[in-house]
Amino acid sequence: MKHSMTPLTGRTRLTAAFLNRFHHPAQVVVTAFGLMILLGTILLLQPIATTGRAATLTEALFTATSAVTVTGLALVDTNSHWSVFGEVVIAGLVQVGGLGIMTFATIFAILIGKRVGLRFRLLAQAETSMLSMADVRNVARRVVVFSLVCEAVVAAVLAGRFMIAYGTQPGQAVYYGVFHAISAFNHAGFALWPDGLSRFVGDPWVSLTVAAAVIVGGLGFPVVFELRRNWLHPSRWTILTKLTVGMSVVLLTAGTLLLLITEWHNPKTFGPLDEPGKLLAAFFASTMTRSCGLNTVDIAAMDASSLFVSDVLMFIGGGSASTAGGIKVTTFGVLAFVIWAELRGEPKVNIGSRRVPDATQRQAIAISLVSVALVALATYVLMTMSGLGLDKVLFEVISAFSTTGLSAGISPELHPVGQLLLALLMFIGRTGPLTLGSALALKEHTRHYELPEERVIVG
């Protein structure tokens, strides 16, 4: 059998030359996101982007960063401050940011997959044939089609609901449906009402549709693809899929129950709702902590214990290679199995019938500790600058770092330096874990000797 190599096209050579200018693929992510934020800032500074006064540099930069990193934190009301042009720019930045995240993350997952199990490699190869530039375009095309189809379905349901149940004019209903479909699927918290989606707190059509978009968008393209192929055969799922689905179900359920308990009698949140309405509101709130900042109740009015529960869920975030932020459920799941193995005295960490490589364990620990350190440092700085309490400052910091977008209402009150710090956290939170994770996974060196072992007392 003869093998032939496909010659590179001009476009392929140009793309390869561009990528070769970077020492590591992760640098492409940081550069691309930075340029998109710059472009978004320039567009939002234009007088046509606002309905009244022009946006300040801080407002434009903060909003552009929040949109590109699909966060949703805002210094001004989206609907009243920004014009239709400004809203379209924000939606476009969210769309490009979300698609870019999924595309880059999925490609990294495929590259990293070459260094993990044979089964993952075979599955990835069957779908993408792995490494050529044509294969990268194939992955990107599939991500884009998958995302746009999901958004179109969500937009159609929302637009129909707005027209039928609320008497919204068809054109405006479609506009609202498309905007919130983009915001929900890409895990951005931008809404076209001052109180978010609070007017739909008891509407299952709106709440469950938005929640479904957030859940699907938070699974990640590799997991969604595998579920499509092996939905009825969980035993064939890879560890990535098992961890993502399993941890997502556990965290969604735990978040719903805990928020339901703490907010049941709160007159400013769940208190006025009937029992089915409370359950719906709790499930929606738990889902949004997976890295989407849309809300149906006033977050600032929640009990401090609810804010703490939300802090934990936001910090964990959603699935790898998805639009969700946080350290990711797979990272959290690996750490949980590391602890379980240590408690049982087992020398190796196993998940099901597979062993977790030592390198993966170290990567999970590194990402988690670096993230904790950044959150702690930023919280200290903002508390010192603002004089505000720990509960709301920590909530805002974790929301920014995990690119969730839920707000305790303090962002507009902060000094511009504090607002820029939150913007920096959004950028680091979006690009940092992805680039750090891929860098650690792709930068593996084989040591041809071992140093003498010495025990260190811990604990």
Walk me through the structure:
This protein is mainly alpha-helical. The protein has one domain (24-442). It is built from 17 helices and two strands. The chain has helices at residues 10-20, 25-44, 57-68, 78-81, 84-113, 118-128, 133-166, 170-185, 204-219, 221-230, 239-263, 275-288, 304-316, 329-344, 358-386, 390-401, 416-442, and strands spanning 350-351, 354-355. The longest helix is centred in the N-terminal third of the chain and has 34 residues, at 133-166. It is globular. Mean pLDDT is 84; it is low at 1-9, 14-20 and 114-134.
Q: Would you spell out the secondary-structure blueprint of this structure?
A:
Elements lengths: L9 H11 L4 H20 L12 H12 L9 H4 L2 H30 L4 H11 L4 H34 L3 H16 L18 H16 L1 H10 L8 H25 L11 H14 L15 H13 L12 H16 L5 E2 L2 E2 L2 H29 L3 H12 L14 H27 L17
Antiparallel strand pairs: 1-2
Task: Give a quick set of tags describing it.
mainly alpha; two-stranded antiparallel sheet; 17 helices; 2 strands; 65% helix; disordered N terminus
In short:
The protein has 459 residues and is mainly alpha-helical.
Give average pLDDT, whole number: 84
The low-confidence parts are: 1-9, 14-20, 114-134
Strand content: under 5%
- Helical coverage, percent range: 55-70%
Strand-pairing-aware structural class: mainly alpha
Number of helices: 17
Biggest beta sheet attributes: 2 strands, antiparallel
Q: What is the end-to-end distance?
A: 60 Å
Strand order of the largest sheet: 1-2
Output the helix-strand order. Answer: HHHHHHHHHHHHHHEEHHH
Number of strands: 2
